[in-house]
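ok trying again, last paste got cut off:
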Amino acid sequence: MFDHPNPDEIFNLNIWWSINAVIFAGLVIIALLPSTRASIKDHLRQNLWLGLTLMLCLIWLIKAQALDYLYLHLIGASIAYLLLGARLTLLALGVVLVVTNLTRHESIIVWGVQYALVVALPIFCAALLHYLVNLYLPKRLFVFIIVRGFFVAALGMAVTVWINLLVLQYLDLAARIENNDFLLLIPILLAWGEGLLSGMATALIAVYRPHWWYQPQVFHDV
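nice, full thing came through this time. structure:
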């Protein structure tokens, strides 16, 4: 996750606050949508939202600092998308981001950019990949667990980390990626961890709690 103790050194503070305002307004609109309110009123979805938000708060607080302005952590966007859908996941991870920032006493000014890079981006990647896999691959339990559970989460994380590194490089906050072997390994390592966590959770839920999925899954074979 991107962070900077002195964001005014990069952009004018008005720009940072404008980004925050746009992101916050978008979340308010999403929260007020009738479909969102209907989902959150469902007791099962409500319990899943609260439980997943709490669990992801704990996961996000386990961080490693790779660069001066980049912290590495798992996100959980793919499994959250499968359980909550896109709108509730956007809200859940927004709460997780706020809690993480307050707990670690990080600058709230960069919250909007953080949200775009580590919440909206991985959720968009997960939603797109899940859609493509569901459209083109057979509806089998094995495909669901291995591809949608593991590989979608891993690929989405890899893309997210790469884009975050490119943003840092564009802002001159990171060494050139092509000259740093460690930075090349970061997306692979995080992708493996994200895929493993998501894959195990997907396997357990698919077998023992299949009614938890946001969209009911019908499998034609194992």
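cool. The chain has a mean pLDDT of 86. The domain at 7-212 is CATH 1.10.1760.20 (Arp2/3 complex 21 kDa subunit ARPC3).
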